[in-house]
Specification:
The structure is a homodimer of 325-residue chains. Helix content of chain A is 76%, strand content 1%. With 325 residues, chain A is mostly helical. Chain A has one domain: Farnesyl Diphosphate Synthase. Chain A has a two-stranded antiparallel sheet. In chain A, a hairpin with a 2-residue loop joins strand 1 and strand 2. In chain A, helix 1 runs antiparallel to helix 2, helix 4 runs antiparallel to helix 6 and helix 4 packs antiparallel against helix 8. At the A-B interface, helix 2, helix 4, helix 6 and helix 7 of A face helix 2, helix 4, helix 6 and helix 7 of B.
Chain lengths: 325, 325
């Protein structure tokens, strides 16, 4: 089985579905940016995970297509609103909605995306539609709470690594967990299968977020699609920054503390941070944590019956976490 | 039966439920403003309509309490985001969320309210939960489309009365229709009952919005809770403005056209508009349209079996549309 080929097929299926799903053009001030967002590509990780989780419990991936598309639209809703709050000028190499249009448009476009996400999710054929919608909804609550912590932490001088991990659990982990849990529910999985896939998703989501923090410092700007060091320049507390602070002493420690309390870093400060992250071992620590999460995540997959879909989930996990962008 | 007394009881029940429903305090930057919004009072019209529609098809109001609270939270979500887009400084005599906190907080608070609305709606015990969630979702889509038209119209020099009616149907009518339709679905109403209550809601919603436009010009500032003439000062195309333009000739017509193309009106311009609205008969036309909608809405109620709840719906309709605020 060529997993890469299959991944691209699933991705294309989701992409096509997303554009058909809108089906409206008026009011133009709303649907033009909505279509712009949904045509923006991306890796479609969350929707692919919904499809694979559904298959991994023994049902055809097709059955989870509505739910997969719904999760993807939900994810795009969070991006549009987060980009406003983070003052992000670009996303996936294109101007963000509030940059190309304006903030008020971006607020409304996000709201509409959230509604469309539910519309499409609710097309799912399942006797467990209430549970599915509830998991989806808790994903939204968690992501809002995660975003609130993220912004609170930007304003605080001191944040612990544990607080940071809680924040990314909510902001990223729970949405990925919702994807795999919903896939398992749509596929009619047992309680144990649903739990295993949910736990798998949560760990993959966390690893993915730590990797994002890492790539923001050591990644390839072109492949990554956003400018390097942007987290620090936004005043974000990242895993690297908080972990380095635990270890750094002397002048480096003073420097990191100043970065934390100053909020936004300049390019020169980002360069200096990168050196400290290497020297304190924060870069290595991030790598180790990603590996540990991935190992634990794969352990949960081991609890599922062997299948081609499960094999593909193993492959997909490695592909995601080996990315250089 | 003392309907006023019963209305207050229902309203208090909803108010209590809304505050319990949050049940969380952290992250504080999120839940403090969320609680602020839900504690803000208001007439709770939409939730009362859910309860009464449920009763009118023969089920206890209690069964629709989750759905009623869900619709109310949904309505509050739209208010928080619309207030940002409308630059509204106050709502129900209190500063709006983006004024008391900031715009980014208000975006996130609105998102969280929408998620909480679904969470609570999904507690509803009903075999038709999918239909209920779908009607709720279409309500959100309509309200987003309505808001987009509203903002498009602010930027356009010319808008027809028909376009305006489409806009308020989406922005206000469909949410009230969703309230009564969901109440009927929760109560296990027949197809005909669900349809009758939905049509009733849509007409009441439209009448209510036209009355809002009217009160913005002729209302009592203190009772109304927002400053008079604010629609015109915001550059909004209201029913009165568009209807007056159909009739006005000569200098008055030129004046109205200038108001339409200028966008935001000054206080002096609002005074002059008020005079023209009276003289062109726009004020009377608005009153007649409200009465016609109400008569048609009541006609739909006549198709329901006689009951105390139906009587209370008649009373509630009159109460709503006789308000001076």
């Amino acid at each position: 089985m060529d997993f890469q080929q299959r991944y691209l097929e699933y991705k294309e299926r989701v992409d096509r579905y997303l554009l058909e799903a809108v089906g409206q053009t008026r009011p133009r001030s709303l649907y033009k940016p909505v279509t712009y967002v949904l045509a923006g590509g991306g890796k479609r990780i969350r929707s692919i995970l919904v499809l694979l989780a559904c298959e991994a419990v023994g049902a055809p991936a097709e059955r989870a297509l509505h739910a997969g598309a719904g999760i993807e639209i939900l994810h795009n809703f969070t991006l549009v609103h987060d980009d406003i709050m983070d003052n992000a000028p670009s996303r996936r190499g294109r101007p963000t909605v509030h940059t190309k249009w304006d903030e008020h448009t971006a607020i409304l476009v996000g709201d509409e995306l959230l509604a469309l996400a539910y519309r499409i999710l609710l097309r799912t054929e399942s006797s467990r539609i209430r549970d599915i919608a509830a998991v989806f909804t808790e994903g939204v609550v968690e992501v809002c709470e995660g975003q609130a912590y993220d912004k609170e932490f930007e304003r605080r001088a001191s944040v612990s690594v544990e607080e940071y991990l809680l924040m990314i659990r909510k902001k990223t982990g729970m949405m990925v967990a919702a994807a795999t849990e919903i896939g398992a529910l749509v596929g009619g999985g047992t309680e144990a299968e649903v739990q295993a896939l949910k736990s798998y998703g949560e760990l993959v989501g966390r690893a993915f977020q730590i990797q994002d923090d890492l790539l923001d410092v050591v990644g390839d700007e072109k492949k990554f699609g956003k400018s390097i060091g942007s987290d620090l320049r936004e005043g974000k507390k990242t895993f690297l920054l908080l972990d380095a602070l635990r270890v750094a002493r002397g002048k480096d420690r003073q420097f990191l503390k100043k970065v934390l309390s100053n909020g936004r870093a300049t390019k020169a400060v980002v360069r200096e941070c990168r050196r400290i992250f290497h020297e304190t071992g924060a870069i290595d620590a991030a790598g180790r944590r990603i590996e540990a999460d991935i190992a634990e995540a794969k352990g949960h997959l081991q609890n599922l019956k062997p299948s081609e879909a499960r094999d593909m989930l193993f492959w997909f996990t490695d592909m995601l976490l080996n990315r250089q962008y």
